[in-house]
Amino acid sequence: MAALRLGSLPPATLTAITVTKKCERFNGGVKVVGDGGGDNGFPPFLPKEVEKIKDPFARNLARRIKRLPVQIGCSESYIMSSCVQPLIQADANPVVLLHCFDSSCLEWRCAYPLLEESGLEVWALDVLGWGFSDLGSSSHLNTISCRIVFTPIFLPSVLITVHVYTCPLLGRLPSCNVASKRYHLYQLWKSYIKRPMVLVGPSLGAAVAIDFAVNYPEAVEKLVLINPSVYAEGTGNLAKLPKVVAYAGVSLLKTFPLRLYANLLAFNDIPLSKSVDWTNVGRLHCHMPWWKDATVNFMVSGGYNVVSQIKQVKQKTLIICGENDKIVSNQLAMRLLFELPNASMQRVPDSGHLTHVDKPRRVVKLISDFTRAK
């Protein structure tokens, strides 16, 4: 498909954003194409590996994932964007849930139903480039094999084949840099949410939330940042990697052993069987056909660097901090508390990095009280 005209996009957005799917128009409205229930009630666009997941909360939330058309440029250009929509519209402003780096809305499998039970209007969104949005058609993917020879000292040469996926019939996938992620979130908010929101960001999602709140303050009433990872200066030297090496690294990022190890770091004292199942939940989106391209695009674009934006945040902010977080130091949460102009902090005992997963009731109570407080 041809590249979009970018006249309506912000100056920071990279060029060559492309259409991922067109919507059929009828009676002046927009029809979502290709959605609907599949086997066992799962949306047909989810990877078939969803069937292997045992966690009932993940399975239930997966059945509720939908794709909504989000305009990204000219009037005919949409990205079919994955999210979980609220069942109710509440008087309080909506709560909008982001997710961690390279994750999906399924991260909120335990907390989402509890937030709804508390009477809140809740959205769980997939950030552009992650999750289950439609960024390309797998039927048009071609494979290029790049052969690299590594010669370690005292060892024979090792020949490695790296498969790089391209979409010649679609042109380039949508850009997944910071500016594109921000603009896509704004367009989704503008089209569907339409009211100032309580924006919740865990880990790197906190950087996404801060960046968005500073650039679109009219869209954000309050912020909730959970074990925030906001002091990394982008992707660092990873942005300078040759594309072939970047694809090799991203292929490693998808592997089950690496994801299992990260899962063991993120949680405290959970059974191995549950950790294996939660690893399958956490890497489900990696089976999307465009995942490698989108992840490499984000990596080489430089990633999030919001250090200079922290003091510009005007919204009232709640920081939720798991006391046993092994990934982001509690000292960094304290630093953020003092640097944000209007912030408070709550600690959650016996909790690791993904506090909203292992202590959902405590986190939901904190979010609910903070949302309703004047």
UniProtKB/TrEMBL annotation:
Q: Which Pfam families match?
A: Abhydrolase_1 (PF00561)
Which parts of the sequence belong to the AB hydrolase-1 domain? 93-360
The UniProt entry, under Gene3D superfamilies, shows: alpha/beta hydrolase
Q: Which domain of life is it from?
A: Eukaryota
Q: Which PANTHER family match?
A: ALPHA_BETA HYDROLASE DOMAIN-CONTAINING PROTEIN VTE7, HYDROLASE
Q: What is this protein called?
A: AB hydrolase-1 domain-containing protein
**Record organism:** Hibiscus sabdariffa
